[in-house]
Each structure stands twice: as structure tokens, then as C-alpha cells.
Q: What sequence folds into this?
């Protein structure tokens, strides 16, 4: 069994039993937005050009980006997240981002793209309102997946071993996750992510930026560092919010599936299309 771990974890660049170090650990805060987005499959070159609709053709959908469903009831995560806080977070903040994004992309070529490509194109073309609203839409829908009501779960064997070898132990991982989130100034997102060759990383991104943007990293787990996520229930206590997230709600089953997608070279979770 150990040989299987060695093989699988070595492929991810995670330290082996002999103590090889991981590149990601040495370079925790690599700058983002350095790379040009991958060329779109459609080959469309001028994505910012508005698509003209032929006369007499019905206007295309007014909501090109769907509202991702909340995969649990509003009160399912109490007491970590009260019904009231979840209501404001999902019904007001999240839907607000989707609505603003739809207003920005409707009737344009962006409306035809998957959300991930809208994020990449908006970043590349420095369209900040579109980047913020598209990224916040993606991050929140991913965050809903990372929340698991009704009990504590643990990472599966491969992810547990990867965490142990990268951070020392689960307790060390937990301490580092909380420390990184508390140290982050302002709004953002706190991620456990995996690079296909450089292993696991805990990193926080500024404001709305998703961890995968121009980084090649695949997110396994995220926690929302924006005050709207925790202020109603936790006030200023971001550390309490992060510890509570890990102890009461982190969806390790989902995180394990994300890691499996990296290992199997499958597409990881994508926003509903
Ligand atoms: Mn939020």
C-alpha cells in the first residue's frame, strides 16, 4: 500500500518518504495573472466585440450565467453559519454577483462562454467589473460545494497522506490554514490547492481572484475570507470562523474528488452550464 502512495504522491511532486521538497512550498506566493489565457476552442479572436443579432431574431437569454443552486438548506450549517447569514450570503451577495455579471455579458460574445473562460478573458483584457463578478460567482459556487452539513468527515487516505507529507500532520495543516487566513489583509479567499507537478499549497488570493487563474493549480477546498461570510455569526473572529469551517463543515469528500481529477487528468469541478 505504501508503494502505491509513493507512486501517486510522487506524481504530484509531494515530498516522498525520503524527504524531497515540493516546489509549491518553497514558493507560496507566486504572483498571479502572468500568463495569457489558453486560446478558446472556438478560436474567436475579438471576444470584446458585441455580437449583432439579426433583425427579427429573439433576444438571447437575459441570464446567460445560471444561478448555481445551494446544495443544502439555508439553516443546514447552523451553528457555524446561521440561517440569516446564509440567506444574506446566498440570496443577496451571491445572486447579486450573478445578476451583475449577466448585466455585463448579456448580448455579447462573453455570454456564449463557460464561466471559467469569462474569468480568464476578463482578467486578460483587464475588465475589472466583469472579472470581479465572474470570479465571485465561480468562487461562491465552488465554496457551496466545499461545505458539508451534518457531521465531520476526514480526508481520504491519499489526501490524508498528501497533507501529512506536505504540512507534517493534519493538526499542522489546520494551524497553517488558520494562520494563513488570519494573516491575509482584507477580503479574499483561502484555498487548499494542488498543482499537478508541485503538490499541495495553502494560499490566500486577493479579493475575487480564483486560485486557478493563470497558476495551473486545481482548488481542493476554499473558505470565504470576505467579512460578509462570517461577520453576522463570528463578528471579528476570523480565526474562529476558519477553525469552525474545518471542524464542522469542510467537505473532504469533495476535496478528494478534486484531487482524484488531478491524478486522473480529468477536468475538475466546473460551474454549472
Ligand atoms: Mn462570500
A:
Amino acid at each position: 500500500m505504501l508503494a502505491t502512495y509513493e507512486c501517486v504522491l510522487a506524481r504530484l511532486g509531494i515530498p516522498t518518504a525520503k524527504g524531497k521538497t515540493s516546489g509549491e512550498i518553497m514558493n507560496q506566493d507566486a504572483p498571479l495573472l502572468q500568463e495569457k489565457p489558453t486560446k478558446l476552442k472556438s478560436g474567436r479572436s475579438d471576444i470584446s466585440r458585441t455580437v449583432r443579432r439579426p433583425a427579427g431574431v429573439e433576444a438571447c437569454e437575459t441570464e446567460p450565467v445560471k444561478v448555481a443552486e445551494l446544495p443544502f438548506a439555508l439553516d443546514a450549517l447552523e451553528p457555524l453559519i446561521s440561517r440569516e447569514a446564509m440567506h444574506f450570503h446566498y440570496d443577496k451577495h451571491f445572486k447579486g454577483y450573478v445578476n451583475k455579471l449577466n448585466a455585463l455579458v448579456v448580448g455579447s460574445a462573453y455570454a456564449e462562454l463557460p464561466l471559467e473562460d469569462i474569468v480568464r478573458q476578463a482578467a486578460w483584457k483587464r475588465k475589472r467589473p466583469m472579472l470581479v463578478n465572474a470570479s465571485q460567482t465561480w468562487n461562491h459556487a465552488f465554496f457551496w460545494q466545499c461545505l458539508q452539513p451534518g457531521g465531520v468527515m476526514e480526508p481520504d487516505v491519499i489526501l490524508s497522506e498528501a497533507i501529512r507529507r506536505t504540512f507534517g500532520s493534519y493538526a499542522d495543516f489546520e494551524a497553517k490554514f488558520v494562520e494563513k487566513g488570519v494573516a491575509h489583509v482584507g477580503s479574499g479567499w483561502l484555498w487548499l490547492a494542488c498543482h499537478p507537478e508541485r503538490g499541495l499549497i495553502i494560499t490566500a488570493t486577493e479579493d475575487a481572484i480564483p486560485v486557478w487563474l493563470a497558476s495551473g493549480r486545481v482548488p481542493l477546498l476554499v473558505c470565504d475570507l470576505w467579512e460578509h461570510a462570517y461577520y453576522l455569526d463570528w463578528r471579528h473572529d476570523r480565526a474562529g470562523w476558519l477553525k469552525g469551517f474545518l471542524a464542522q463543515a469542510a467537505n473532504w469528500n469533495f476535496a478528494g474528488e478534486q484531487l482524484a481529477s488531478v491524478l486522473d487528468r480529468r477536468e475538475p469541478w466546473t460551474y454549472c452550464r
